[in-house]
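Example 476, ligand adenosine-5'-diphosphate.
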Amino acid sequence: MTGKPLYLNGKWVSTSDTLSVYDKATGELISDVSTLKRSQVATAISDAHEAYLSWRDRTAKNRGDYLRACADELLRRKKEIASIITKENGKPLAQSLGEVDVSADHLYWYSEEARRAYGRTIPHQMDNKRHLIIKSPIGVVGAISPWNFPLVLAVRKIAPALAAGCTVIIKPASYTPLSVLAFAECVDSSGVPAGVFQVVVGSAKEIGAEFTENHLCRKITFTGSTPVGQDLIRAAAQTVTPLSLELGGHAPVIVFADSNIELAVETVMVAKYRNNSQSCIAANRIFVQDSIYETFLESFVKRTKALKVGNGMDSETDIGPLVDGNAVKNALEQIDDATAKGARLMCGGLRLNDKENFLSPAVIADVPLNASCMKEESFAPIAPVCSFRTEDEVVSWANDSMFGLAAYVCTGDLNRMFRMGESLEAGTIGINDGAPTASHCPFGGTKQSGWGRELGSEGMDAFLETKHISIGAVHL
Ligand code: ADP
């Protein structure tokens, strides 16, 4: 028996080695997906290189037309693809529908940005010279995407790379390859030439090794954990392959007494619980100024208790299953560690009896800074809260992390907004905004949260080389 086919060089290819994909809410098998051997990944890279030689020569407008056709098809199949996301990932369906919308928006935005890969001319310093700066696509791109946003984090890599004139091979996470395979059907139906976009599934280590060691793979773009990012950095040293890395986060949220408390609670609800709290920009440490601490806590606990945990396909569900039982185990250990160090568990924190990967959302108050949840990413619906006194104190706490992906601030003071934007060490700072990521604005981390930026014009720059053309012997 062969598995669900992969999309390789314009064809749908099945193999007899497979990996199984399960519904995260019911545990039922959804599909057995074909997997590749390393030699087949090498062939995909050669095919991508062949396709690159003509894709890069098309006009940017033409490449943009294909991206728009992919987005149109994605939206036409929105409901069906959203339910694939919910089943293989677990998030509530309304959020999966949103993920399809945002993915289409990325494609539309980069279909236009393709035309704006501007170069420049630089005034000459010698009479007989002229200088042009042009942007050229970097070549074949190896993309590795995670399971927490199985569609949008893949499209965030694919859209700008294709717009820039690169060809792309993507390896989706083994927990969630089906969303990317559905996207490949949209690419196929839009008529993108063979080899421009391909999907490989198989051993992450082998695919990573092929991407980093194969000289035809000219760029690797990765979203995932910091340890795997570090492995890729080490491996890419052999070929000096450039990397864009979007790694872990440990976002602080700072709620100042001058904020509107209900709006602040709403901001924290979104920043904490969106995507079943399995987001690298999820709120991990919630710092509330002492004079409003109890009032904030009361309202936040009330809102958290009202969240409904269940199957993401049920329209009532606010929080679906976590990716696996281990995710719940880690969260329970973080809660135990915090309470052992003096924190108060205000609500939730219970594994739902018959389902090993469902956890009721937990608010933990008075969490000391040395608790493990204040240092390590939770990736689960647990919300550690503690109070602070002064702005200086809380900024030093917020920045005391090896991560620097996102930070959130709730305040009504305009001066403070600017001060926070400048002093917090994070690539994205949401001020009274719990969902700050957008197609047109750069996204990425400082410190051990990664290298480079996705989205915005920076997101396309990641796939472009800057070339200087120096023209000598000009006779004007
Ligand atoms: P998470 O499980 O938090 O998403 P991972 O870093 O484990 O983070 O996984 C992110 C992606 O990286 C997935 O597609 C996974 O299969 C892939 N991956 C895991 N280990 C490696 C590796 N050694 N080399 C390349 N990719 C890897």
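Summary: The chain has a mean pLDDT of 97.
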